[in-house]
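Work Package 3 (structural annotation) set out to generate three-dimensional models for the target panel prioritized at the project kickoff. During this period the team completed the workflow that converts sequence records into discrete structure tokens, so that structures can be stored uniformly alongside our sequence database. As a representative example, we reproduce one entry of 292 residues exactly as it appears in the project archive.
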Amino acid sequence: MFRGTATALITPFTSDGVDYEGLEKLTEYQIQGGIDALLYLGTTGEPPTITAEEKEDIIRFAVKTVGGRVPVIIGAGSNSTASMVASCKKAEQLGADALLVVTPYYNKCTQEGIFRHYEAAVSSTGLPIFAYNVPGRTGVNILPATARRLAEAFPTIVGLKEASGNMSQILETARLIDGSSMKLYSGDDGLCLPILTAGAEGLISVASNVIPSLMCELVDACLSGDLPKARALQFKYAPLFNALFSEVNPIPAKKACSLLGICSDTVRLPLTVMSEDKAAVLKSAMQQLRLL
């Protein structure tokens, strides 16, 4: 679907609703920075707090604003398989290029439940699908054997966004799906270098909300095999990565975008704005990279 860097976009808000001016500004900032794909309504976009009507409007806005310049990926996940299927169908109807489907959260299903959840997704749409493994948020984990089973069964699952943080597991998954139509993608900025050197096709990034061109440079160095450059860049950006995850994502990413003048740092409850002490650390990390 893409090779390189995709941004898991924040959703800018005002006190009254979605900030479409800010979302347009952010979208253009990404494309000008060389981003290879854009993900709207992923975890970073706060979808649990966005109404069904707002989601439809955001998808329409994204498709129109991007205008085919890069692929538009839409987060369509739910812990209800039926709701997820409906979201997949709606996103396809509204012009999405691909879908991101996270594992069912809170329900804590079995590996068989994970398989059947994605089977339902594949059956509902002709769009390419990215499976998303983030057990720290969902409570369930796509084990390597299940990843291989999904890859063998469903050619339209074109990617696996891995954010388990478990490098031993990620390496085993990479081994088992190697050569299949399901490509591995890093879902963790801090592990970009090792996951890409394990054979991943790219990164789905939070940090690229803030530094799109720099994240593209890091990923391109990894993919081209320039490991000394990639290592140097990974280390250089590490303080920013740490600051961007010092509080629950996307709180720091929104604060960073507000410091760049893209949008406000407004989040929807139960999220709250970034604490002053951690915001100061984030600002310092951005200043070190001469972003401010």
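The longest helix spans residues 227-244.
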